[in-house]
Design a protein that fits this description.
Number of strands: 19
Strand order of the largest sheet: 1-18-17-13-12-9-8
Strand content: 15-25%
Shape: globular
Structural class: alpha+beta
Helix content: 25-40%
Distance between the termini: 28 Å
Bound molecules: glycine
Number of helices: 17
Largest sheet: 7 strands, antiparallel
């Protein structure tokens, strides 16, 4: 009884605080703790847990469940992701809760008899769904590093789903789009409905009772509440009735894994990134190593030389990504140490021509389609423990399908595998072996939750959504903080570029690059293309001297917020 009064109080306070924090600034300062996420409500959930004596891992778990309610485009229990955790002594670990290919999958599962991808089936329909990892990952993180009881961390999300929260314009726009295409998206077309069966209107309260019921089983039974029993059976029934292949055996077998971080250095800072099956840590450190070789006294931020060098570092790191990286449990011989060595960076830097763009040999490696609707959040607690989490459904609202009885959306993460073995084109596909589909294998990811330490203490906590652009936006924000000493909000908002080796295109944020620079880059041989925005970075820095914590949420996510206390 006492607990439910407290929870109702939290709910009321959350609503109040949402109303009172509408004038949130780009950056927020705090002394005790900070949560930065793509949802103000969910940042508030995390802060509520910190204030109750929870540590950063507790707050991250509560924030993740909360985002599954408030930010369903990417916040999830039907997808997967990664957590990097550094305690206040600088000891760092990671939790891999990436989705896995179902037991019945195979390397040619998406192909027709001519060897072409069948009906976009690696992205569309339930064949594209990997075995979800989020609940197992959060549960493992809690068992190893959490402090407050598990039920206390799931309960705020239950309250938000059951009692509802203020429906925002982003959700409303998504609801409108799904209604307009209801024949294509039957599950999503009623997902945002109110009790009357109509689309919830902006500023109305939106409730999700089925999701609340699912979360209650997770609250009461932990990992097994999702991977065994009623929920697992309903997932398997729904899958087999709708063309999916995930079974109760797949769910029962799913395990999150604790892995050692990828570690690099940059001019006295220690960088901790996510190891494979993420490509983020390796690529980030390879690029930072190349940056360490640049004489920054002679190169100005955002000059053509700056853009050129970053582009060439990206080209090289993404070529290595395509060639070597995949699930480490299936690729025992990946040359990880070599890729992150200073010697490798020197070799990669040596053939970089300062006058001319290199050429990507896309007859060897290429690009696959990549979802951009992931979400990242960063957490710091009073004791100095730091958590960086990126998790995803792959595309916006994942595969856009789910069981009405369960109330959550499944991922379409299988699209991150290389779909056509052996075929690599300059336009769309990579067919290299390390990331071909196999039963129980994890698909390669670009998610790059990162923590940078100075003198053994967390200094920067950062990450972003954005498919492959994640690696590059995290890289540039990290460089902006470590090399250019930018305040975190400035580092996040500064112009970002993206190059991923193949296709050989330099993408830049529209209106942020001067036309003169663009023209100079074209003269150097770069093929340039403007895009509306790159990344949605959620970052925290900690001043080692004053201990002041600064948080900032990317302005590209207007529902997001850095909230401190
Ligand atoms: N689905 C996006 C990623 O894992 O990189």
């Amino acid at each position: 009884m006492k607990t439910s009064i407290k929870h109702s109080l939290f709910f009321a306070l959350t609503l109040l605080s949402i109303i009172s924090i509408t004038s949130i600034k780009a950056q927020t300062y705090a002394k005790n703790g900070m949560v930065v996420s793509a949802s103000k409500i969910s940042s508030q959930t995390g802060i509520h847990i910190l204030k109750q004596g929870g540590n950063a891992v507790d707050a991250a778990i509560a924030t993740a469940f909360s985002l599954a309610v408030t930010h369903p485009t990417a916040g999830n229990i039907g997808g997967g992701g990664f957590m990097v955790f550094m305690n206040s002594n600088g000891e760092t670990t990671t939790i891999d809760f990436r989705e896995k290919a179902p037991l019945a999958s195979s390397k040619t599962m998406f192909l027709d008899e001519n060897g072409n991808i069948k009906n976009n089936s690696n992205h569309k329909g339930l064949l594209a769904t990997g075995v979800p990892g989020t609940v197992a990952g959060l549960f493992l993180a809690h068992q190893k590093y959490g402090k407050l009881p598990w039920s206390k961390l799931v309960q705020p999300a239950i309250n938000l789903a059951e009692q509802g929260f203020i429906f925002n314009w982003n959700l409303y726009r998504a609801g409108q789009r799904f209604k307009e295409a209801s024949d294509q998206f039957p599950f999503m077309s009623s997902y945002f409905d109110n009790k009357k069966g109509e689309l919830t209107q902006p500023n109305e309260i939106w409730k999700q009772q089925a999701l609340a019921n699912t979360l209650k089983k997770i609250r009461d039974n932990g990992r097994d509440g999702f991977y065994k029993g009623d929920i697992a059976e309903e997932i398997a029934t729904y899958m087999s009735a709708n063309g999916g292949i995930i079974t109760t055996e797949d769910l029962e077998k799913y395990e999150a894994i604790e892995r050692k971080p990828i570690i690099g250095t940059y001019k006295g800072f220690d960088i901790y990134g996510m190891p494979p099956p993420s490509s983020g840590g390796i690529a980030l450190i390879e690029m930072m190593n190349i940056m360490e070789l640049v004489n920054w006294d002679t190169i100005e931020f955002n000059s053509k030389e700056y853009v050129h060098i970053l582009t060439e570092a990206m080209r090289r790191a993404f070529a290595d990504r395509a060639e070597f990286l995949g699930d480490p449990d299936f690729n025992l011989d990946m040359p990880l140490e070599r890729l992150i060595s200073k010697k490798h960076a020197k070799n990669r830097f040596k053939n970089l021509n300062m006058e001319k763009a290199s050429v990507s040999d896309s007859s060897k490696f290429g690009q696959i389609y990549d979802g951009k609707n992931t979400t990242h959040f960063s957490v710091l607690d009073k004791s100095g423990n730091a958590v960086s989490v990126t998790y995803t459904l792959e595309n916006s609202y994942g595969v856009k399908m789910g069981s009405k009885a369960l109330g959550f959306i499944f991922n379409n993460e299988m699209g991150d595998f290389n779909p056509v073995p052996g075929i690599t084109t300059s336009g769309w596909q990579i067919g290299t072996k390390p990331n071909l589909v196999a039963p129980q294998k994890r698909m390669l990811s670009s998610m790059s939750p990162t923590i940078v330490a100075r003198d053994g203490k967390p200094y920067l906590i950062i990450g972003s959504p954005g498919g492959r652009t994640i690696i590059n936006t995290v890289f540039q924000t990290t460089l902006n903080v470590l090399e250019f000493d930018m305040r975190i909000d400035k580092a996040i908002e500064a112009m970002k570029i993206h190059h991923q080796w193949s296709p050989d295109v330099l993408v830049f944020e529209k209106y942020l690059m001067s036309p003169d620079t663009r023209k100079e880059l074209e003269l150097m041989g770069h093929k340039v293309r403007a895009t509306n925005g790159l990344g949605a970075l959620m970052g925290i820095t900690i001043d080692p001297k004053t201990k002041i914590i600064t948080g900032a949420a990317d302005s590209s996510r207007p529902e997001g917020a850095a909230i401190g206390y």
